[in-house]
Task: structure prediction
Amino acid sequence: MSDLVKNILRFFIFVFIQVYILDVMPHLHELITPYLYFLFILWLPFYIKRGWLLVLSFVLGLTIDYFLMTPGLHAAACVLVAYLRPFVINLFAPKDASGFNYKEPSPKAMGWTSYSLYAVFLSLLHNGYLLFLEWLSFGSFIVFLMKVISTTAIYMLMIYIAEFLFPRKLRYKTNVA
Amino acid sequence: MRNVFLFIRQFSVFIAFLILQIICLYLLFTYNRFHRTKGLGVAGEVTCYFNKNYKNVQGFFHLREENRRVHKMNDSLMNLLKNNFVKIDSLDSLVRETVPFDTTGRQRIYKWRSAQVLYTTVNNDRNYLQINKGSNDGISDDMGIFSSNGGLVGKVVNTGKNFSEIMTLLNVMNKLSVQVQKTGRAGMLSWDGTNTTELDMTGIPRTDTIRKGDTILTGNYSLSYPPGKWVGTVAKVLKDESSNFYILKIKPAANFGSLQQVFVVENMNFIEQKKLNEETIKKVERKAERK
Result:
């Protein structure tokens, strides 16, 4: 399957899971809102152009927004994540002069430690910004902080489950092929 | 000039980021202020289409439970029918000619319609639900919504052609007047955004005796809801030490997580009552200015 087809399918699957499963199911606790959809942005290939990354994230966020009836909220957070993703990858990826040996960020390509750091950092940014925008109109500061922490924790749990349940078969990229 | 182009080229990604961010924030802040009206445009119709198809599949698995509730509701409605009518004074022949009323001599003031819930959330601070009827079916803003077991759900805040959006009780912006059945004392019902099974009710003085399990009904003075409809039961009675009032925790009668069919209540006199109210305020203010 080519990367394009794969990512288009992923887009729909993530939107479906977010809108019809995670947002409809009764929540565990009032502070925890499960957000999984922006794993789509984390899983986009390394070689994608930064402009396209921004546009794709914007479209993803806006799609989620129109289903959840909050135009702009998720889109704003997604665009922030997409803008900072290349910097974070440079920060945490193994320093290798010949570039990356795999196509996408994954535990296999980056190692578990740096992949986890990459995911934690971006999800903190996403949840922080998203909940900050919500907090502007309602709620107290302590609740906001606790929400960010608990949402990020549950997100990391879901990432690990997703990585273990669906290990992505990534081909080793060689100079020959 | 060349430097300007070079600058733009060098920072093109950052500029794109800024532009997209501004679009997002613009959408976010204008949307909420204007009562969610932009949401039910083209995008609203598209998401409603998906929600409708999804609901067709999902609804199949809840049919038995829903049937039981609707049946129970119908039974109780048979006894309540009189409540929807008010008796007209037969001496007043002028009114009789202009007011629509049926052969039994009663004027209808509330009209009930049923609708299907397409999408609902309970996880946010502001929860809304979508139903599959809109202005084409006679729905308009500020109508009341009740669940299939007769509990209050919320009120219509926005109507599209074929779909409407409802603000549920689980919405931090929602405030309405309710009463305690036992004493008839009116209070305010609101939600603090934390626990979905507990609403807050304030305004009941501590001289009243309130017990766990007391019934809470809709207030007498609302334009949207018929008076005396079930809202919930008292789950906890807390005393506010700083004032002379109770803080009551109310368990809502409607189960917001599993809504399937709802009733939309229309107050037939809504426009007239509201207009009268507004005109009165205007009139009184004008008089006050003149003095």
Observations:
- Chain B touches chain A at residues 12-14, 16-17, 20-21, 23-29, 31-32, 36, 38-39, 43-44, 46-47, 50-51, 54, 119-126, 128, 165, 172, 193-196, 257 (CB under 8 Å).
- The helical segments of chain B are 2-10, 12-33, 42-59, 63-80, 93-98, 270-290.
- The CA atoms of residues 126 and 171 of chain B lie 4 Å apart.
- DSSP finds six helices and 14 strands in chain B.
